[in-house]
Amino acid sequence: MNYLLLIPATLLLLLVFGFPLIRYFWLSLHASSVLTGLEPIYNNGANWIRLISDGRFWQDLYQTSRFAVFSVGIEMILALVIALLLNNEWKSKQIYRSITLLPWALPTTIMALSWRWIFNTPYGPIDQILNLIGFNNLNILSNPSLAWVGTVIADVWKTTPFIALILLAGLQTIPVDLYEAFRLEGGSPKQSFLYITLPLLKPYLLLGLIFRLAQAFGVFDLIQVMTGGGPASSTESLAIYSYLNAMRFLDFGYSSTIMLASFMILIFVCLSAYIVTITITNNFRRYKL
Amino acid sequence: MKLNKTLIIFILIWSLLPLGWQLYTSFSTPEALTQPFIFSPNRWTFENYLQILNSNPPFWKYLLNSLIVGLLSTAITLIIAVPASYSLSKSNNRFSKLSKLFLAGSAMFPYVILFLSLLEVARKFNLGNNLLAICIPYSALSMPLAILLLTAAFKDIPKDLEEASVLEGLTLFQRLRWILLPLIKPSIASTAILVFLFSWNEYPIALTWISKSELLTLPVAMARLAGSSVYEVPYGAYAAATVIGSIPLLMIVLIFQRQIVSGLTQGAVKG
Questions:
Q1: What is the mean pLDDT of residues B98-116?
Q2: A162: closest CA of chain B, how far (Å)
Q3: Chain B residues within an 8 Å CB radius of A256
């Protein structure tokens, strides 16, 4: 009887999470594009061979990883600072929290466009201020070697609150007595941070890290709206590339191959991030930081 | 403490600045947009707001569409997730651990990867351009987090309470309705708000499933408003749309801040 209650949820989850992955695997082994009249024809793994020799795929993989590493790295550090700050006793704690939460709650597309306007050349505030102090336009979003920095800044703005809140929840599980006792034993604030806060925060740091890595690796909305993957594909992510293949080039077989490949790489990345973090934090004391 | 205060003010400004800039832009005339830091008496205007409200289809339509999708997805998610979570909270074995692992994995999954296959399903069953149909993938995508949160809430209820009500002869439905659900109300509220926010903000699926302009949800409508060209975005009108589109979320965050935070953090602790 009890297990009957699980059936609707299980079916829905299988339909939306399970079926696509199987379907992608099947499609990735078939040619299914305008050339075949969108009829899938088995093609002996030609999609996978094409993927390996596709420079654009590797370029996008590099760009996606660059975006993920920089944005998640900065977000983790900033979020820790914000969480530590919010963990103090403030008179207007609730309002502070609401305001820091706001960027996360707003739709990504809306804020991506707002950032595009902020980075606008020559009318955006950044370029205007630079002009006032006598510098040339920065041209961030139209410069192929700089545009990705703009997307990282917008992403950091948007998602830091989320990690900060998770870390804040972690901080609040640490008993105050622990710090008190440590201080009485003669521990400095720096030591109490290293030997109490960080180790006890570990599960929360890990969760934030893995969750954000996975999300950043699949970045789509932000880049699609902010730069469209340009200029000159310099901000194109794997998700954008597979989207283009499906919707613009109408090559479903190859698009599926890219998505499946990014999924497998993502699992590998998250597992390695997990193992590396565990190893580092477990050997914390040995490094005498 | 002084330093902390300065830092926190800096963070608050940083969080609000992009929105503030949109607000400032939304009241600027096109001429003023080209010189944002030069103040003249006739740089202010309501024109951008009038333009947005008189557009075709009117802007409030997108808000309404997003509201419908958000509410319906939340309802479907809860109707399916509550029984499933109850059932999971009762099974305390390898099965529940394994399902928890799968749920946490799917909750973290960057779902944009799924869009092509979901689009195929939509085409096959003719679900495109249908606000009710799009709630199915939305509910499914919110399901993992919802089940994790609600299972944890059900597990926190003392066992004796339910055993007593079984002895009283209450059926499962009665127990849920009169005993268990009232007890997990806070978790239901958090879950509902998180699902609502997700559905309200979702982009890739709405982008591929809906093409009729009167059915667009807010995020897609906003992206479409900006067009595909980098150079011709009507920024004044766009900023006005941002401001109007942000007001409902601003209110949600202010009113339900506690539920959102507890939902997110419960998800973190228990998931």
A1: 87
A2: 8
A3: 116-117
Q: Which residue of B has its CA nearest to A107?
A: B201
CB–CB contact A2 B91 (8 Å):
yes
B156, B248: one domain: yes
User: Among the CATH numbers 3.30.950.10, 3.40.50.10490, 1.10.3720.10, 3.40.190.10, which is that of A43-287?
Assistant: 1.10.3720.10
- In angstroms, the CA A199 to CA A194 distance is 7
Whole-number pLDDT of residue B80: 94
- Tell me the nearest-neighbour CA distance from B33 into chain A, angstroms: 7
Domain that holds residue B3: 1-45
* pTM exceeds 0.95, yes or no: no
Task: Say whether both B75 and B148 belong to one domain.
Answer: yes
Residues B133-152: pLDDT tens digits?
999 999 999 999 999 999 98
Residue B189 lies in a domain: yes
Flag whether residue A128 sits within 8 Å of chain B, measured between CB atoms.
yes
Give residue-wise pLDDT tens across range B221-254.
888 876 644 455 678 888 888 888 888 888 888 8
Q: Which residues of chain A have pLDDT under 50?
A: 289
B-interface mutation test, from A39, A117, A153, A234, most B Cβ less than 10 A away: A117
pLDDT exceeds cutoff 90 at B97: no
* Residue from A7, A19, A109 whose CB has the most chain B CBs within 10 Å, to mutate: A109
Domain identity same for B34 and B127? no
In a domain, B12, yes or no: yes
Q: Which residues of B166-205 are buried (b: 16+ CB within 10 A; e: fewer)?
A: eeeebeeeebbeebbeebbeebbbbbbbbbbbbbbbbbbb
Q: What is the domain count for chain B?
A: 2
Each residue of B179-221: pLDDT tens digit? 888 989 889 998 999 999 999 999 999 999 998 888 999 999 8
**3 state SS for chain B:** CHHHHHHHHHHHHHHHHHHHHHHHHHCECHHHHHCCCCCCHHHECCHHHHHHHCCCCCHHHHHHHHHHHHHHHHHHHHHHHHHHHHHHHHCCCHHHHHHHHHHHHHHHCCHHHHHHHHHHHHHHCCCCCCCCCCHHHHHHHHHHHHHHHHHHHHHCCCHHHHHHHHHCCCCHHHHHHHHHHHHCHHHHHHHHHHHHHHHHHCCHHHHHHCCCHHHCCHHHHHHHHCCCCCCCCCHHHHHHHHHHHHHHHHHHHHHHHHHHHHHHHHHHHHC
